[in-house]
Amino acid sequence: MQNDRLSLDEIARRVDAKAADYCALSDRIWAMPELAFEEHRSVAEQIAMLEREGFRITKNAGGMATAFVAEYGSGGPIVGILGEFDALPDLAQVSGVTEHKPTAKGTPGHGCGHNLLGSGSALAAVALKDALESEGIAGTVRYYGCPAEESGSGKTFMARAGLFDDLDAAFCWHPAVVNEVQSMSSLACIQAFFRFTGRPSHAAATPELGRSALDAVELMNVGVNYMREHMPSDARVHYAITNSGGDAPNVVQGYAESLYLVRSPFLPDAERLFDRVKKIAEGAALMTETTVSVQITDATSNVLLNRALQDAMVENMKRLGGPGFDAKDYAFAEQLQKAAITPEDIVASVKPYDLSLKAKVLHDGVLSLPTREEVMMGSTDVGDVSWIVPTVQCHAACFAIGTPFHTWQLVTQGNLPAAHKGMVLAAKAMASTAADCLRNPDLIARAKAELKERTGGRAYVCPIPPEVTPDDLRAKAA
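Request: output the structure for the sequence above.
Response:
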């Protein structure tokens, strides 16, 4: 039976009532950017806000010091809202300018808008909690403070720890250049070190006694490059040489390593491709008479879309309308486009959606759901949540169209009024769709049935091996 007391208008009113506090929280986190697994001050700020709102806090979630769960209410249904707050290296930038102007050289900055992401998700959780509390409605609201999305897959560890197992639905968002419900799945990925050990020797006097680990790294790279012709066109393989064995050319390198990232639209396909990469590494070791060890350090599942929740969220977004940008928002976006965003950037940013948007500086409408599902050429640890519980994500326009992510151009906009307006829209979309699930048990039932169909009966298996811990990832990030 539906409960009409959780109406969209009521949820929107409660978001607006707390919006200023959570925009200020977003700005504080923007001003204290912290890298993966180091988000201690950002987490402390969020926990302090949520404790004042009456949420019960569980710290060190999934064995990570900067992961936590905030919960209000009791019983079912249980809805979860996901937040992030990690920054990126070397992106510190002065706010509200149209030129590259670092605040401090070599320090982090919020180049993906996660200061907005976590704060907007917390705002959604608080608004929904306020509505439940006011109306005496049963149900549980959880906010998940998820660290290390950029490098570390915090949600994957939280999924492995079972933290999402009893959820009925999960909601999240990401700052963007358009307003839409995400209709693209993502690439599953597996990242691993390939470490070769040989035998060092003097490269001139006794080269025949040496066995070069660097030769093995290079031969592996050649083999993988030849494999590219014979792998699916929508798969990706990237690598970096992380240890070349030193910088002395007169030494046969006894140790060298490379870091590989394998991606594919479906996790089982990524696993099969990764097995082929491992065989190439073993071949390189045979050819050079070295040995190789493989250590998976990071992995995420592909996002499973959920049309039942997508339809509910896009209906709410269309009723809410766009962020409501004003003349100052448009003026700055236009200045930034002219000064620091190329025509190619603009086309690339709207090509997945609607090329006619390239004529705009800010998106103040709401896109409809496309009829066909596509794959986003990127990866996110939201994918692991989506294999466990029906999950939906929206995008809200916070930045000028054409803004490249992971750049200073995005950082400079991250605490401006336009970004706040997009964040508030996202909070309303998440909270109202979560309220729909609490009002209408049939929506949850349909979403769960769809998830079962999309998994094809495959139970969630964490792609990060059990022997890999968050401590291993923390060491890598450092």
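The radius of gyration is 24 Å.
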